[in-house]
Amino acid sequence: MTEGVRRATQGERASDGGASDARTGRDGSVALVYERAFTANAASQLDRALDVGAERSVLAILYRHDVRSWTTALRSHCDRVDSAAAVAVGPTSAGCGRDDAAVRTVSDPTDLTGVGIAVGEWLRARDTDEEPVVCLDSLSTLLQYADPERAFRFLHGLRTQVRSADATAFVSVDPGAHDEATLGTFRALFDAVVTGESATAETDDGESATADGRPVATDGGASEAPDGPVSGSE
Fold it and tell me: Which residue spans adopt a coiled-coil conformation according to this UniProt entry (predicted)?
């Protein structure tokens, strides 16, 4: 087991050696969540995002789940939610009316810049006493509309904004939908890799990740993209 994997398993951020837990409040951490598409649902993703004692403000970036399923899941978690909003992208934006004040729609799923602007506006609107968390429900679906390079730049910008806001973010991906080279490239952006109940992953040294939701591995690599606003453009 590499030193980076060991520290991540113990809840430390492998990239800098400092204390970090991607599930424990406002620390600017970003976690990549491995979960199979057929088991990933809005309720389980909310459970993960709200797995802290305090109420949280939640923003969902919906590439896979529709607004109705997200709203239904929110109702069952209302005791742990301070406020909630969503960015509904592409097909998930269908049926969103003008009265859906908490829902921002981006009809073109290739418009990563538009998605990034919506996320940035929501983060800047948070009060200092709020604990914001951003959930991207499916990186795998996003990759159907953007090549890996554009997606990487988008996630790099998202990470920058989340850290600047001292928020937390979870990005879900189906590990069975991508080869190890692609997954390894994206892992470099994250503080930890978390596995869902039915997903297994391998760390960079080939060791299996646990399946109990603990952060288990990062490679600590530095990304090549420059810091800046969230955007998928060059």
Answer: none
